[in-house]
Amino acid sequence: xxxxxxxxxxxxxxxxxxxxxxxxxxxxxxxxxxxxxxxxxxxxxxxxxxxxxxxxxxxxxxxxxxxxxxxxxxxxxxxxxxxxxxxxxxxxxxxxxxxxxxxxxxxxxxxxxxxxxxxxxxxxxxxxxxxxxxxxxxxxxxxxxxxxxxxxxxxxxxxxxxxxxxxxxxxxxxxxxxxxxxxxxxxxxxxxxxxxxxxxxxxxxxxxxxxxxxxxxxxxxxxxxxxxxxxxxxxxxxxxxxxxxxxxxxxxxxxxxxxxxxxxxxxxxxxxxxxxxxxxxxxxxxxxxxxxxxxxxxxxxxxxxxxxxxxxxxxxxxxxxxxxxxxxxxxxxxxxxxxxxxxxxxxxxxxxxxxxxxxxxxxxxxxxxxxxxxxxxxxxxxxxxxxxxxxxxxxxx
Length: 397
What we know:
35% of the residues lie in helices and 15% in strands. The strands form two sheets. The protein has an eight-stranded mixed β-sheet, with helices on both faces. It has a seven-stranded mixed β-sheet with strand order 9-8-7-10-11-13-12, sandwiched between helices. β10 (260-263), α10 and β11 form a beta-alpha-beta unit. The chain is an alpha/beta fold. The chain has helices at residues 46-53, 73-78, 87-91, 104-109, 127-135, 154-174, 204-215, 227-237, 248-257, 277-281, 331-351, 355-361, 363-368, 379-385, 392-395; strands spanning 28-31, 58-62, 82-84, 95-97, 115-118, 139-142, 196-200, 219-223, 242-244, 260-263, 288-291, 312-315, 318-321, 369-372, 375-376.
């Protein structure tokens, strides 16, 4: 029996791919008290803090930060957080979580190289904000920019769901206003015509406003200039309702008959004004307008910004509710929602060995980064404020 000699190729070492071991990192997260006007939410609930501390991470919370969301210092302390009255101590943490964007005074308290995760609210920012963060070599992520696996923006979507649902409940309260309300129950009682609601906009806010109104038995009409959005809305509602593109005659006809009009339009820079003052004048006396779009200017010509303390005004015999940041009114629900979105990302960041490794692995998280070690990585912000920007994919790969 002949023995086959080894060939030169058989003796060559073969390549083998080995798994690269990821070193888990420990997070040290600071949560300061929100100081922005009317802001009552907090980024993490006690349950979320407990989840983080049980994984070996540290959380430091400024005393009283959760009170406006009905969470006491004791609840956070029992969950494993360190409670302090020293604001500077909280801002010196390597990672900072905040609902509202930082003020210039708060940026001054940060250490160089801090990781900041917060909302950005681009239209309310100034060029100095980004320059101040850049000087301190801050790495900053915006809630609004973080993407999910399906390409959606979970934080924006969740807060839009709250705003849409709340808009109908707010309208229901205002319709029974003793001084000027019509004394109507929002719903469909046997033998009584159902409440008529017009919704402008078929996005997430409009969809959840429609769901809530239909659940209460109201008659709903939805207007939007996107047939695709209207079609998707009907599919998501799983029932046929009145939908139409925005045409002045048909919109005026619907507004004349309605008891409630909800503004849920969105625009690139400013929300389009689709209801003129003349149209509002033709509405029923005592009808209610809830302009959720007031955050971006409002879609009713008669809308003016109001506050949670004084939320309404009457113009042309119509009750107007034009409070920006409606989710803050439901601070505990909104806090739970934000916490549920951000906690898995925080655990993933630690599991991947830190933020730099995490954004290499997670494109959605990478999309949330707008400053990386002081370098602006968001082109939209660069164009908006005429600042130099770099593609993050050329920095982190």
